[in-house]
Description:
Elements: H1 2-19, H2 29-33, H3 45-59, E1 64-68, H4 80-84, E2 90-94, E3 101-106, E4 109-110, E5 114-118, E6 121-122, E7 144-148, E8 162-167, E9 178-188, E10 195-206, E11 211-231, E12 234-239, H5 250-253, E13 259-264, E14 266-290, E15 293-316, E16 322-327, E17 333-341, E18 343-366, E19 371-384, E20 392-399, E21 405-410, E22 421-424, E23 441-467, E24 470-489, E25 519-524, E26 539-543, H6 545-553, E27 579-580, E28 586-605, E29 608-629, E30 632-637, E31 644-649, E32 653-673, E33 678-689, E34 700-702, E35 705-707, E36 712-715, E37 723-737, E38 740-752, E39 755-762, E40 768-769, E41 774-775, E42 778-785, E43 789-801, E44 807-818, E45 840-849, E46 852-861, E47 864-868, E48 881-884, E49 887-897, E50 902-909, E51 916-919, E52 926-931, E53 935-943
Parallel strand pairs: 5-8, 36-42
Antiparallel strand pairs: 1-7, 2-3, 3-4, 5-6, 7-8, 9-10, 9-53, 10-11, 11-14, 11-52, 12-13, 14-15, 15-18, 16-17, 17-21, 18-19, 18-20, 19-23, 20-23, 21-22, 23-24, 24-27, 24-28, 25-26, 28-29, 29-32, 30-31, 31-35, 32-33, 33-37, 34-36, 37-38, 38-43, 39-42, 40-41, 43-44, 44-45, 45-46, 46-49, 47-48, ...
Amino acid sequence: MRTRIGLAMTASCMALAVAMPASAQQAGQGDIADGVSTADIVVTGIRGSLQRNLDIKRESSGVVDVISAEDIGKFPDSNVAASLQRLPGVSIQRSGSRGEPQGISVRGFGGDFNETLIDGRRLSTASGGRSVDFTTVGADFVGQLAVYKTPEVSLSSSSIGATLNISYPKPFDKPGTRMAFTAAGSVQDEAGKVVPTIGGLFSTTFADDTMGILIDAVYTRRDTQANRVYVSGWQGGLYRDCALTPVCTDEQLDQPGDIVGWYPQQYGADQRYTKDERIDGRIAFQWQPSDDVVLTIDDNYSRQKVVTDISGFGIWFSQDSLRNVEQDSNGTTINFLQAGSPTDFTAGTDTSVLETNQVGLNVKWDATENLQIDADASYSKSRLNPDGQISSENGDIGYGGLIGTTLGVRVNGNSSSSFPELTTYGPAGNEAAWTDQAIIGSHVTVRQQQLNSDEIKQFRLGATWKQDDLTIKLGGRYMEDEFALENRNTFANNFWQAYAGYGAPSGRDTGVPIPASLIDGTISTKNWLPGFSGNLPPVLLKYDARAYQRYLEGLWQGPTTPGYNAGCCTGFNGTFDLALDPGSVQRITEKNWSAYVSVNFKADVAGMPFHFNAGAREEIVKVISRGIGRVPISITPSTADPTLLTVNFSDSQAVTESSSYSYFLPALDMKLELTDSLHLRFDASRTMTRPRLDYLGPVLNVGAGQRVGALTATGNNPFLKPYLADNFDLGLEWYYQPNSYAAVNLFLKDVSNFIVAGTDRQTINGVIDPSTGQEAVFTVSRRINGPEATVKGIELAWQHVFGDSGFGFNANATFVETNKPYDESDLSQSGFAVTGLANSANLVAFYDKDGIEFRTAVNWRDKYLLQFGQAQNNSAFGAEPTFVNSALQIDLSGSLRLTEQFSLFGEALNITNETYSTHGRFSNQLLDVYGYGRRFTAGVRYRF
């Protein structure tokens, strides 16, 4: 109630602000809402950048942190997210297989809770979420990043974490002609291949500086080889007493279990070689037809292609088949045996092409001495696999049946330093024959094509009145977001099982031998992961999944083809054609109308300068959700593989739902200058985060290809409401000398309408599970608006430059907590906790003098709950969690200016060879660990 009363007072404060006399100057936050001009950049290098950042922070009414380019074409890092993690309260989420910073969390709120804007415009993203994958955003020619931790209502109030505004340079920022070029080579130690980055920027003004054009383009490539050990999911369930012994009788198997436990659904290891190529291009044209009007047209384009080749093995487990089970005190299965286990050698090629283009038109008009009008229109479209690329082509070969292994897995320790290991392996337990090609046959082959698109049209109109110390802003925005998703695969037509069974060596009529010519060699697993204990089989098989598919397609002689699984695939004609998965089809339209007003003034309170900013934003949203619905009518077992099932469906029909909501979002910023160097801040606001677009589908989707004991279905919810947060900040900042300050900031967020991805186990349409003879029980995941939670924390920041020595540092730490932490003992279907919360700390120490720069960056983030759900989540206890283990990474960078225009630079990333690892409910339930290695870069930079 106190929270609501505090926010309600904001409207009264706005009225008070208009009535009070104006007296000094604008606080400055509104200026960077439209992207801070780089025209005032004079000092270059680390110290110049830090001073500009500090000046903006100091003058702002709200809580904002900024990172500026050190010079044209010289941003501090090659990745936007890598730079952002240097800021207080900001930490990053890495891509495990590449080690690249992929997303950010602000004060514990990650991904979709943070809105990313390009020059004040929403950027489309075909991922389906609200967040932007920062590996797709080139940092080479970024001018500035501004992170608003309290809302600027003229910009947005649609982010509970923060609003990030990326500003690109424009030709009028610095009239005249200027150019910048960069060329570099980088190598990851495991990949061992030097790959290039090359880019250039050209900007000029002409026609007496009334016109200007800026063009830049960058090509970047990163190659990464990563080793991985994984458990696809730790499934919770109830063991029978006999599972703890070597044998279960039929009578015992008929009895229900009562021993709580978790077991690994699938265990394996693989090596991944990833080639990441990105092209970024931008053109901006500006025209000033009169002293009062500036027109800007720009086009931002990016295309990223990521291709990953995978070689590994995977072994599937079912709880009812486990024997000699040993558990620790938490119920985690730490040792077991499973008779007759098949062994699969896996290979695949995953491809993702993400293409985004944003075109914009902006007109600024100084209508009078006091009034400025700002009109902006933009169109942005993002497409995933725009040319119909196949997303993944995967193959499994191996052995099972008569030579299946009585296979065991043992868990030896914590997931941050140890991975599970096989206690027995090889055909019929013969470890020496682990990769005996004479017995290896075909199993399954999976092809998938994910096609997404996201199209955003937006228009905003704003007016700003400035007179002495009073600034009034008002305006509105319309935005329409069209998101489309569909998946085609070989599950929908069951073609993935066409040659399942492993063939004659495994005692099966289906499946064919794999010729030695398809095997490209082996990969040694010696010294697999730095800093981790645990043993793997000595080698992995290496083969091309696409070549494997072509080989199988070349065998086709009709339904009587030897090894063909004739009972599996109606309509199969020898080729692994894709079929549309109707349940994957979504068409989401979101229309958003918003209006805002804010008042900013400066006055004196007891002789101390007082800055006051009050505003409010009204958001109205309408959602139309379309999909294709169908229900299962039967389940068919595989005659080739007893672990595989096929779901058969009713006819499909179109489904459409619509919903709407509106919210009033006030904001209040106050700053009191106790002295010239000591500033006290207080901020209160209400913000919201809209649900992910791909959460708004209207249908329940049951996959056609399923596994015994692991029937799943997913359901979205077109009626989801946004998260709402009431936010409070109290901060003290001490600017004790030039380019140096210390600050402490307390924050509290009361968040409601949390979207919970709960699961339950239920029957659907009365279909029978042929493996049990009973009604099939599916693990169904659904999303609903649920509980409330409070997040609170403290940010500490200290920046110091040691006079004119050239030495300095920037350090910060953030400590957060919540009243809804994860309760590992909660076995209910609807367990809830706040995700993303983690303590973090960052230190950047530098030297910058006489053309020499050197920087050491140390970044630490404690363990945190990433999400509810695992790669395979069939637990009887709801959505199992995924935690990310704590990590510390140290990066080095430096440059040497040889002339005023020419410099050399280099960087070494992850010099301590840190890994990325995750675990389930308990710390010894390893889910993933990636060793992504070190990366070294060297290059040249030229500017004038």
